[in-house]
Amino acid sequence: MAAFDPWDPAFVDDPYPAYAELRDRGRVTYYEPTDQWLVPRHADVSALLRDRRLGRTYQHRFTHEDFGRTAPPPEHEPFHTLNDHGMLDLEPPDHTRIRRLVSKAFTPRTVEQLKPYVSQLAAELVDALVAKGGGDLLTDVAEPLPVAVIAEMLGIPESDRAPLRPWSADICGMYELSPSEDTAAKAVRASDEFSSYLRELIAARRKNPGDDLISGMIAAHDEDDDRLTEQELISTAVLLLNAGHEATVNSTVNGWWALFRNPEQLAALRADHSLIPSAVEELMRYDTPLQLFERWVLDEIEIDGTTIPRGAEIAMLFGAANHDPAVFTDPGRLDLTRADNPHISFSAGIHYCIGAPLARIELAASMGALLERAPTLRLAAEPERKPNFVIRGLEGLSVEVG
């Protein structure tokens, strides 16, 4: 297991050879440093994402003590209150109820209507990049586009948006393996500040509803007149913001870094913009923005003759599954024309990403704008990989135009 080391910069830079070793070892491997069972093959990851014997939480069925786990430290409570009331970390019946109510406001039609706004914003951001001859693709295009889009959807005023990305980054630090106390302290502070801000915004929308997602979620109810609680509203808004841009930001810079390293594929894309939809899917597969997704074992399961007991934690390796040669022909090759591409970058089952259609619109819009308005875009400096393993991205991506 020496090759799999999520704290080794060399592994973080390129984990895919270690994933191949894991797949060759078998369908499941116990990893002592994190006390997790690693699952690297596509068929198993896909099946386990749909297996109701596993859960994102166990607290709907067990106490911490019953499950053989220790409760989080009391000083981390603001983060866990925020995190544990979002649908990503809930199981039925609460997950079902919240997702149903959120879906009433977050409809495919709502997302489709955003296309002109997304395209216009992408064009403006790329034009600004071109006007100054280049810059950091991360901060100039990849970040501002999805942050502005989800903030616009939620109804967060433009003057209030500056802290959104820092709050999100600090909260998402807790999703890494074995986060430090410093990381936890930042997440707690961000959770407090973000929650306080949203509490005030929700109160204002209750008095004066607008044509925005927060107003829609306040108004959403079902036939039993069931509504989201204030904490569920806050947690859902934070989840939509965090999930609504983190993957898109990282997919954008990971994707362009991959294109620069595969010039023949970039040339084909520049010659044929109709490849954009399949390119978006292939780039998400090729360098997966979310490398690992965890589940608790609620009822004992068996994988390939190995019994995994209740109370254990399974780490499904999305990056490894997306490079499984049993599913993807020549998985280490970037192929923007790949037609059969069942990648699991958006997860699967009841926790399938509710924002996947929006992410695809944003990724296609930024790619199209860069291809059309910056046809000579090129790499200006070798990028540095962020030290994070679970959420995979770059520190920046310096580019030149002209």
Tally the helices.
17
- And the CATH topology? Cytochrome p450
Fourth-level CATH superfamily = Cytochrome P450
Number of strands: 10
Number of domain modules = 1
Percentage of residues in helical conformation: 40-55%
CATH architecture: Orthogonal Bundle
Percent strand equals 5-15%
| Mean pLDDT, all residues | 95
The spatial strand order of the largest sheet comes to 1-2-8-5-3
Based on CA inertia axes, which overall geometry fits?
globular
Look at the structure and give the CATH class.
Mainly Alpha
- Sheet of most strands: 5 strands, mixed
Q: Specify the structural class.
A: alpha+beta
Q: Give the termini distance in whole angstroms.
A: 46 Å
Helix and strand run: HHEEHEHHHHEHHHHHHHHEEEEHHEE
Instruction: State the low-pLDDT regions, or none.
Output: none
Question: What's the Cα radius of gyration?
Answer: 21 Å
Characterization of the model:
The chain is α+β, with helices and mostly antiparallel strands. The protein has a single domain, classed as Cytochrome p450. It contains 17 helices and ten strands. The strands form three sheets. The protein has a five-stranded mixed β-sheet with strand order 1-2-8-5-3, sandwiched between helices. A three-stranded antiparallel β-sheet has the order 4-10-9. It is globular. The mean pLDDT is 95.
